[in-house]
Each structure stands twice: as C-alpha cells, then as structure tokens.
Design brief:
The chain is mainly α. The chain contains seven helices and no strands.
Length: 186
C-alpha cells in the first residue's frame, strides 16, 4: 500500500511538469505499473519474474533521468525536486520488497519444523499408550495445529503459491488513475 501511495503522489505532483515531460512521466508510470503487475502475475515463472524486475529497474532509471533533467533547468519547474525525492523513496520501497522476495526462510528450517511435528505427534502417541487411554480430540487438534502452523509459515514465506494471496487491486487502481490522467491531458 505504501508503494501505491508513493506512486499516486508522484502522479499528482507530475501535473506541475511541462506538458511533454508530464506526458512522458505518465507513460513511464503506466509502464512501471504494468511491470509491477507482471512481477506479481508471473507466479513461479522465475524468468518472467526477473524480466519484470529488470524492466522495473529500467523504467525507474528513465523516470529519474527525466525528472533530474527537469530539476536542473533554470528555473526548475515547481515540485521537480519533490517528485525526484518521491521516485527515489519508491525505489527504496521496491528494493525492500524485492529483498523480501529474494531472501527466504532456509529449507533447513522447514525440515526442522517437519521433524518437530513428527516428534510431537510421536510423543502424543507415546503418551496415549502410557496413559492407556486415547484423547482423540486433543490429539487431532494438536496435529491440526502443528500442520497449520507449518503450512502458514511456508505460505507466508513463499507468496507465489498457497492460500494467502496479496490483492493487486491498489496497483490496478493506480494504473487506472494514470490512464485517466493521461486521457485528461492529451
């Protein structure tokens, strides 16, 4: 949400730029939104994921170059420095999110969780044998709790598969806002 908020601020501040630069920035922002959506919708297709990241980097560089050229004009358009600051903040947010994507919980941790789950279930079975009675409800609930914990840790760590899905509605809304802005300034 923070990323889309920054992008909306860039879009609004771009209104202060002269027409050709404003229009070019709008095009770049639309392409940037497309690249970010492609990153998400690429799923587990890693070549597409990394192609989308490369495209995002290229578009960011083009936006910075465009805005820096405007900021260096004499006199600079009002807000050019602010736009440049927001673009750089957006870049920081993107790098942070990309870092989260690239750094995963090591497989050894998941193996350890699996072993702990198996040992926990074995101890429950042993306890039932020692007590010479079965607490089926407690055993089933404990097993489900262990399985659900491991599953959700895996699902959160690997967001490109599983049940938990991050909505892309804010980025799609931003893309529509850019298109609307572009149509209002032909």
């Amino acid at each position: 949400a923070k990323t889309v908020t920054q992008l909306h601020a860039i879009l609004m501040e771009a209104r202060m730029l002269p027409a050709p630069q404003r229009d070019r920035l709008h095009q770049l922002l639309k392409q940037y939104a497309d690249a970010r959506l492609e990153f998400f919708f690429a799923g587990r297709d890693l070549p597409r994921v990394y192609a989308a990241l490369d495209r995002t980097t290229q578009l960011h560089t083009e936006m910075v170059d465009l805005i820096q050229a405007e900021a260096l004009r004499v006199p600079p358009p009002p807000g050019a420095q602010a736009i440049l600051g927001r673009v750089n903040e957006e870049w920081g947010l993107l790098r942070e999110r990309t870092g989260i994507f690239e750094y995963r919980v090591p497989d050894e941790v998941f193996f350890l969780l699996f072993v702990a789950c198996c040992l926990g279930m074995a101890l429950i079975g042993f306890g039932f044998g020692m007590a010479q009675r079965r607490e089926i409800l407690g055993g089933v609930l404990f097993g489900l709790l262990l399985c659900a914990t491991i599953y959700f840790v895996l699902d959160l760590d690997r967001p490109r598969r599983g049940l938990i899905d991050v909505s892309q509605a804010p980025m799609l809304g931003f893309k529509e806002a850019v298109q609307s802005e572009m149509s209002s300034h032909p």
